[in-house]
């Protein structure tokens, strides 16, 4: 574990302030970075007016949020309504306290030698998971306290999202704990001097990458704030700086999960393979560690933006199916295989590498066969529905709540009419009947009138 014995109260305060400044500046840069990358992906320039290369655009956005009118909804629970964004921001700022950003450095103009990390302890990774879990309460309470339907739906979705993807994320991290033999972040980084854990633990790494995107409400998993369905989800009733706090927390959480992926899977602040041995190991010392750490973190940030610019939003049933039927079973299966492999090597001194390789191959074959069979069954069902629709000329009426949660209709299917549509159809039918019966009634009335006039004559 990193040595913090020479740190004083002043050192802790300075480190805390520098981490806070680093995160705020990183958010400003992340907003510009995301707009430029998405602009390039969509063959447009992105921000290029305010400042050189549009670098002052995030500053203009921050000024706009500061000067906007602050509105509090009349039906909101005011205390919780104001407290919710503070919870999200506060919990997002706590994570970097245990992230090692570099090795030991000497503070300029002093004799103080300290690690580029605020603190560390034996269960630091569990502390990170705890901060992420508590931070979601800000989203849940923000949606509930707004006193509106769309924010409430967004907060309920965020609850399901956390339960689904925190499990798979935690299981993927257990693989690192088994191989490293520790949950301290600085010790996990030190165990990756020869090999980064994403190579031997590649399935766990993929599970973590997918889970981290679901954890921070980013496309294609931004269901709590899906603007096409819920206006802005849990943020619908927020404006001005309270909205900015939620916005700030989302981007800080992106940086947090990228830093965790770098620390646990990508060697932390160590130099890439081969470079650390150059110049007598100088590229793994001093401030070089911070440079490697930042490059790796922003590589993951690029992946975030890349996915947002290329993948569409999941449907809610697809989202839940991915979490519970694919991610969690895969994480559990890989964890069992890894535990057996580690036990054979540790306790029986058996070379279990062939076992691990064979198990990974079998698991890959099972996954490919399962996906192939699912795709074949889905295509068969789609062809059957299409042929039935072509033969009958009508679509099948389905019950959207048959699976326990609403699902949209597939090709060849349609939803039952809503109560309002049924009443409208009934009124139109009555109007049509009245239109048809009106000439007959008029003719009968004219006949009766003629008979009456004949009798009078």
Automatic annotation (TrEMBL):
Q: Which domain of life is it from?
A: Bacteria
InterPro entries xrefs: NADH_UbQ_OxRdtase_su1/FPO, NADH_UbQ_OxRdtase_su1_CS
Fetch the Pfam families from UniProt.
NADHdh
Predominant subcellular localization, coarse grouping:
membrane
The catalysed reaction is: a quinone + NADH + 5 H(+)(in) = a quinol + NAD(+) + 4 H(+)(out)
Q: Which UniProt keywords apply?
A: Cell membrane, Membrane, NAD, Oxidoreductase, Quinone, Translocase, Transmembrane, Transmembrane helix, Ubiquinone
Region (Disordered) residue ranges read: 402-430
Q: How does it sit in the membrane?
A: Multi-pass membrane protein
Q: Which family does it belong to?
A: Belongs to the complex I subunit 1 family.
Provide the function of this protein.
Answer: NDH-1 shuttles electrons from NADH, via FMN and iron-sulfur (Fe-S) centers, to quinones in the respiratory chain. The immediate electron acceptor for the enzyme in this species is believed to be ubiquinone. Couples the redox reaction to proton translocation (for every two electrons transferred, four hydrogen ions are translocated across the cytoplasmic membrane), and thus conserves the redox energy in a proton gradient. This subunit may bind ubiquinone.
Protein name (database record): NADH-quinone oxidoreductase subunit H
Q: Which gene encodes it?
A: nuoH
